Amino acid sequence: MQSDQTTEAEVLEAAKGCPIHQINPMHPALLKQPWGMNRRLREEAPIFKDEASGIYFVSRYEDVVKMAMDHQTFSSVMLNPTRALAATSDDEIKDVLASGYPNVPTMLTQDPPLQRRYRKFVDNAFSPASLKALEPFIEATANDLIDAFIDRGECEFLSEFGVPLPLRVIVNQLGAPVEDLHLFRRWTEAAIRNLSGQLDRDGLLQAAKETVEFQHYFVERIEERRNAPQDDILSKVVNASIDGEQPLSHPEALSMLQQILVAGNETTSSSLTEGIWLLIQNPDQYELLKKDPSPQMISNLVEEVLRISSPSSNMFRRAVKEVEWHGVTIPKDAILFARFASANQDGEQFPNPEKFDLTRPNLKEQVAFGKGVHHCLGAALSRREMNIGFKILLDRVENFRLAEGASEPEFAANALLHGLTRLDVAFDRVQ
């Protein structure tokens, strides 16, 4: 069951009869399809130690929220590198990384009070007024993307809408020309691969090269914006002056910009794409939406898609002290996974959790964007992009279905992020 050659179906079938401690939750097949494993963890081992990695999995909604709200006990600051690039001992990879800038803990990898300092630098960039001003650009971008494929009656949704909508928005706000869009996608994918836990040595080397490429590109943009600020996120971040403090250093700014880049497009791409797949799979909910395409129902769609899709499926935490939890002793400095995807499918919080239900009364209780001090900075932007994107899609095209000859969509194997690899759809133009 641990073999990499084992098929997804075989792993999932074997897991049904296995004692829970014998199952490898980091098996690629269970990263692609974690729902059955998550259910068993919630029922049998709400605090589960993965012996291979030493990571403790926290799976129930109540426990995940408790951990996310208690940064004094469960810190986001790692004592040892947990990302593949940072932890490498390969001399060639280390030489590549040394040609760039050091990775420093900032927003996602820091705790208050330092974390609050970094958040202050970007709060203005994501203020309600700043996001409101972005709406015409988001709307125009969504319409332009649909214009490019609507006459064909089909598209590969992920690459033709799911990815480019949030990516164009964040690239615009990071002060880069649209011609560089392909670079930003490549750098996003490099960051995701580094988080996947699935890279071999060649993959790590390539990710290192692309990380350094990103850094050098942005050092030039940072200098440009410091000399000539514009009305974009990049200018607001690099020129922010908080309580008389010095501006961010290059490593600090680069760390924050990489987080903004990935958080500002990848999770939204995944949720937009899975949202269409969920509507295809649930025609009753699709009909509800077509009968009532009101802003409230579109908002319900966004929240339920986020609950089901949970694109940021797991997040690292470190135990600051020894903790006794559900009969399990978690030692000081142990690494934990807050399993947000599992929390969002906890039947104690969301009855009939596997059902896609736009009328669910507690939709806003989903935790796809985290909770507490590390609640996702880009949550409001993502919600706005999804609300606008879904509305315009529903206004212009209908009857989404798998394209003729298309295979069943598959999810990527990633330890932290979750999303479809492609979605080939056909549709009709709204008359």
Overall mean pLDDT stands at 88
**Class derived from helix and strand content:** alpha+beta
How much is the radius of gyration in Å? 21 Å
Based on the coordinates given, report the CATH architecture of the largest domain. Answer: Orthogonal Bundle
Q: Tell me the CATH topology of the largest domain.
A: Cytochrome p450
The count of DSSP E runs of length 2 or more, i.e. the number of strands, is 10
Give the terminus-to-terminus CA distance. Answer: 52 Å
Number of helices: 19
Low-confidence sequence ranges: none
Major sheet attributes: 5 strands, mixed
CATH superfamily of the largest domain: Cytochrome P450
**Which band does the percent of strand residues land in?**
5-15%
Order of helices and strands: HHHEEHEHHHHEHHHHHHHHHEEEEHHEE
Q: Order of strands in the sheet with the most strands?
A: 1-2-8-5-3
Q: What is the global morphology? A: globular
Helical content (DSSP H or I, runs of 4+): 40-55%
CATH classification, class level of the largest domain? Mainly Alpha
Written overview of the protein:
By secondary structure, this protein is an alpha+beta fold. It has 2 domains: 1-33, no CATH class; 81-313 and 371-429, Cytochrome p450 (Orthogonal Bundle). The chain has helices spanning 8-17, 28-32, 35-44, 61-69, 84-87, 91-98, 114-123, 128-149, 157-162, 164-173, 181-196, 201-227, 233-238, 250-263, 266-281, 283-291, 295-309, 340-343, 379-396, and strands at 47-49, 56-58, 74-75, 154-156, 314-319, 323-325, 328-330, 335-339, 397-402, 424-429. A hairpin with a 6-residue loop joins strand 1 (47-49) and strand 2 (56-58).
